[in-house]
Specification:
With about 400 residues, the chain is α+β, with helices and mostly antiparallel strands. The chain has a single domain, classed as Beta-lactamase (3-Layer(aba) Sandwich), CATH 3.40.710. About 30% of the residues lie in helices and about 15% in strands. The protein has an 8-stranded antiparallel sheet with strand order 3-2-1-11-10-9-8-7, with helices on both faces. Strands 4-6-5 form a 3-stranded antiparallel sheet. A hairpin with a 2-residue loop joins strand 9 and strand 10. It is globular. The N terminus is likely disordered.
Length: about 400
């Protein structure tokens, strides 16, 4: 079962990710398929291996896959461990992993592509007569505050309720589809604050953004993202996860729960727009490198990226704050990142201010999950700092 987070624990977990000092430098074009790890010295390679082995040992991690680019070129792309313990299948860099909430930045970028095309606006209302989703979902639009919710409230986790705690609807009624779950949530889980006044991390809010994308684009969420976000980055193979081990992708790892968690007893497919994608770390790094890096075809215009990475004014003060689908430093001028956590999955994706980008994916999770989340983040920071030529 999904571990429920207190508001404080969740903020600490998000804020700690990517917490090392901001880097400086200049980006250049990403080269497909290049792995610059052959330029690492023997001593450096040994230190990278030691760091990875220690992390895997400490948290009983079957498989860990990490990809890093610097100035748009791969400097590290390695997978270590076991993708399938039963059949002793080793992990490769082509293995797909559930990325959990690392999905949220992808959904945010998809929303902003629609905004750039004039099909959507941040202040558009989501529910009620004349809104994006209209009256589709039962009688829930009659509840207090529901018709005040805007697209921006969903992006910034300020819709007024539906937090990631013991009441999170995304981990209830697993047999229901989106329509059933959204209708039930609107009717039975009232909002506690007027939209825009309170920050609370909301998986359900990003589930709603998936339905917004579908309503505005006329396409299924996954189809729209693949055509308008992933394909322009040259990313192939990313897809929405299946729920059972038997139905998993042919190239997907097996997930291993700890402390009684079962990764195959949650409806990951229904989490599509908030936590449902499977990917390789290299694919995620390609996505990062197409968000404003020089000499890349950017998915979004500079002014759009500034809006996307501007923190929510109601997020608690501090050096790291949540923007629109991303945690950011220095009001978006510093590092951007997002981590992810599900039974059987611990993930992180980071884009630094200097052009270093990385993603790290595992096929397990420990309890308390905050500990492994923070350690995975710190692992990759320690890795990039151990190679002086990467200028971390």
């Amino acid at each position: 079962m999904q571990r429920k987070f207190s508001r404080r624990a969740l903020i600490q977990g998000l804020a700690s990710a990517g917490a090392a000092a901001i880097l400086t430098g200049k980006s250049s074009a990403w080269l497909s398929g290049q792995d610059g790890s052959d330029q690492i010295s023997g001593r450096e390679r040994g230190e990278l291996g030691r760091l990875v082995a220690e992390f895997k040992r400490q948290y009983n991690v079957p498989a860990l896959s990490v990809a890093i680019t610097r100035n748009g070129q791969f400097v590290y792309d390695r997978a270590l461990g076991i993708a399938d313990r039963k059949d002793s299948i080793e992990t490769t860099t082509s293995n797909l992993f559930r990325i959990a909430s690392v999905t949220k930045p992808i959904t945010a970028v998809a929303v902003f592509t629609l905004i750039e095309n004039g099909k959507l606006h941040l202040n558009d209302k989501v529910f009620g007569a004349g809104s994006i989703l209209g009256m589709k979902y039962g009688k829930g639009t009659q509840k207090q505050y529901v018709t005040d919710i805007t697209v921006d409230n969903l992006l910034t986790h300020t819709c007024g309720g539906w937090p990631n705690d013991s009441t999170d609807p995304m981990f209830q009624h697993d047999s229901w589809d989106h329509t059933q779950l959204i209708s039930w949530t609107l009717e039975n889980l009232p909002l506690t604050y007027p939209p825009g006044q309170h920050w609370a991390y909301s998986n359900f809010g990003y589930c709603l953004l998936g339905r917004v994308i579908e309503a505005v684009s006329g396409e299924a969420y996954a189809d729209y993202v693949q055509a308008n976000v992933l394909a322009p980055c040259g990313i192939q193979g990313m897809q929405i996860a299946q729920n059972s081990e038997r139905k998993r992708s042919a190239n997907e790892v097996i997930y291993y729960g700890q402390y009684g968690e079962d990764p195959y007893k949650i409806n990951v497919t229904r989490m599509d727009s908030h936590g449902g994608w499977i990917a390789t770390p290299a694919g995620l790094v390609q996505f990062l490198d197409h968000l404003g890096s020089p000499n890349f075809s950017s998915l979004l215009k500079p002014e759009t990226i500034r809006t996307m990475t501007t923190p929510s004014p109601v997020y608690p003060p501090g050096p790291a704050r949540y923007a629109r689908g991303w945690m950011v430093r220095d009001n978006g001028a510093g590092n951007w990142w997002h981590n992810g956590s599900l039974p059987g999955s611990t993930t992180i994706m980071v884009r630094t201010a200097s052009g270093l980008c990385w993603a790290a994916l595992t096929n397990t999770r420990t309890e308390p999950s905050d500990e492994i989340n923070n350690s995975l983040d710190q692992l990759v920071w320690n890795m990039v700092k151990s190679v002086p030529s990467w200028q971390a």
